[in-house]
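Q: Trace token order:
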Amino acid sequence: MSGTTPPAPGRPDHGPGGSPTIGWTRWAVAAGVALGAVGIGVGVQASSTADSQPFERYCETVAEQRAVVGAALEAGPTTGLIRALPSFERLADEAPRDIADEWTQVNGAIQRLVDALDDAGVDPASYRREAPPAGLTADERASIDAAATALGAASTVAAMGAVEQQARDVCGSPLSL
């Protein structure tokens, strides 16, 4: 808008000497549109930055926890998941909203098994369903079986697959080494 002069007094759409210029109203609208566009751009950038921050934090946490999860999972399928639970909880805390439900399902299933084993006073590393420890009651065994079945259920396995795929797709990294 260089070269544009403000309107002459008494003539809102004319500049000094009566020459037509962009009127105050149109200038104000144009300025408002320009400022609005800048504001939208800043808003989009801030929104984009805010939207990417959860992914950045999540991917940093994936990178930090990868070796720990890998080492935990080497202990075997059940014991490994139990050992990995603290790392999984950290990952869930940083997870983007689109994968939060899956993390809740995975961590909840693992925690229910931990609780059932703890309530029965059983060491997860030594528990064998086919040879339960002496003194294990039928109710305790049923509780452990139910928790283990829920951990191996199709919905939990699918949730585990989803969190692993999310890490690969968004972070370019698996959850474990």
About this structure: The first helix runs from residue 24 to 73. Residues 1-50 have pLDDT under 50 and may be disordered. Residues 69 and 86 are 9 Å apart (CA to CA). The chain has five helices and no strands.
